[in-house]
């Protein structure tokens, strides 16, 4: 089942957690519908690996349905988006139809907020002329997806972030032996406006504990717009790549990102490049945190 979901994987591991009272309250607050107390107990998350690189997540849930219990295996990315799902057991004649039909298409790539919108839309939709049994199993499947993502965000958030860091690190620095993560906020004065930039930096080291490079995520304003960027930086503090983490229509901003490729974060900025002040300050922050990390 796991290897069918992630055919590139060659191994897996399980992470077992029990939903604590604080988790329960958070999950119930997130969901747009009520859940039974017994639904939130002990859970196991399966992690698919390709070598040492995490490849994806599988989480199985058993739900009450019209024709008895149904078990669904949910396949997800490391950033908690649905890849697909598979019914492992159930008596409804619509199970295979749902796995490959419009519902599966709608759910593909969805995060929690998007699934919650699908749940609400399905509840409000006029299902006249459709089989009651089909509508019922659709509702069960959608609500199961929402429960899964709410549980992942609440119970396993730290572990999943670490797995996501490892995957990103191995993609950029395949010879890595370990990773460390640092988060900070720094001030920057750009075009006369002071602002705070939130930053997460993932440092990669080889087996000899030599620094290989890092990945940094920054969030702050460029002009009047709020943007988040991912930076890939090598051991010599040269930019391998810079890109917005969300879709950006600003052509000048995208051009500035591409122009930063190959530049050193230790070189004074070019005033014609909007991201240069951020790059310069980020270079200092990365170097300072790397020194602290090595101690």
Question: What oligomeric arrangement do these chains adopt?
Answer: single chain
Rg calculated over all Cα atoms = 22 Å
Distance between the termini: 44 Å
Number of helices: 9
How helical, in percent, are the residues? 25-40%
Quick one: biggest sheet? 5 strands, antiparallel
Average pLDDT for all residues: 84
User: Order of strands side by side in the largest beta sheet?
Assistant: 1-2-3-4-5
**Which class do the helix and strand fractions yield?**
alpha+beta
H/E element sequence: HEHEEEEHHHHHEEEEEHH
| Number of structural units classed as domains | 2
Taking pLDDT < 50 over at least 5 consecutive residues as the criterion, the unreliable ranges are 269-274
Number of strands: 10
Question: What would you note in describing this structure?
Answer:
The protein is of the alpha+beta class and 295 residues long. The protein has 2 domains: 2-161, no CATH class; 175-294, no CATH class. Helix content is 36%, strand content 34%. It has 9 helices and 10 strands. It has helices spanning 2-5, 21-30, 95-100, 102-107, 112-124, 132-155, 157-172, 251-259, 276-294, and strands at 11-18, 42-50, 53-65, 68-76, 82-89, 178-190, 193-205, 211-222, 225-234, 239-244. The strands form 2 sheets. The protein has a 5-stranded antiparallel sheet. The protein has a 5-stranded antiparallel sheet with strand order 6-7-8-9-10, sandwiched between helices. Strand 8 (211-222) and strand 9 form a beta hairpin. Helix 2 crosses helix 6 (132-155) and helix 5 (112-124) runs antiparallel to helix 6 (132-155). The two termini are 44 Å apart. Mean pLDDT is 84; it is low at 269-274.
């Amino acid at each position: 089942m796991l290897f069918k979901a992630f055919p590139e994987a060659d191994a897996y591991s399980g992470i077992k957690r029990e939903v604590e009272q604080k988790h329960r309250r958070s999950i119930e607050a997130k969901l747009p519908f009520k859940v039974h107390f017994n639904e939130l107990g002990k859970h196991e998350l399966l992690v698919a690996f390709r070598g040492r690189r995490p490849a994806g997540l599988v989480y199985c849930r058993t739900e009450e349905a019209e024709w008895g219990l149904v078990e669904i295996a949910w396949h997800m990315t490391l950033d908690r988006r649905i890849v697909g799902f598979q019914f492992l057991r159930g008596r409804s004649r619509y199970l295979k139809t749902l796995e490959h039909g419009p519902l599966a298409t709608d759910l593909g790539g969805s995060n929690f907020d998007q699934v919650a919108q699908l749940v609400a839309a399905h509840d409000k939709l006029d299902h006249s002329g459709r089989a009651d049994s089909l509508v019922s199993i659709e509702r069960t499947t959608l609500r199961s997806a929402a429960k899964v993502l709410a549980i992942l965000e609440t119970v396993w958030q730290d572990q999943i972030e670490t797995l996501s860091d490892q995957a990103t690190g191995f993609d950029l620095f395949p010879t890595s032996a370990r990773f460390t993560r640092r988060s900070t906020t720094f001030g920057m004065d750009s075009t006369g406006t002071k602002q705070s930039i939130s930053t997460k930096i993932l440092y990669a080291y080889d087996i000899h504990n030599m620094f290989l490079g890092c990945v940094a995520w920054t969030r702050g304003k460029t002009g009047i717009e709020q943007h988040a960027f991912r930076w890939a930086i090598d051991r010599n503090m040269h930019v391998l790549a810079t890109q917005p983490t969300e879709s950006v229509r600003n052509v000048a901003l995208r051009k500035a990102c591409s122009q930063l490729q190959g530049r050193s974060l230790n070189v004074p900025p070019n005033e014609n490049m909007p991201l240069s002040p951020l790059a310069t300050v980020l270079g200092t922050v990365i170097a300072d945190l790397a020194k602290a990390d090595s101690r």
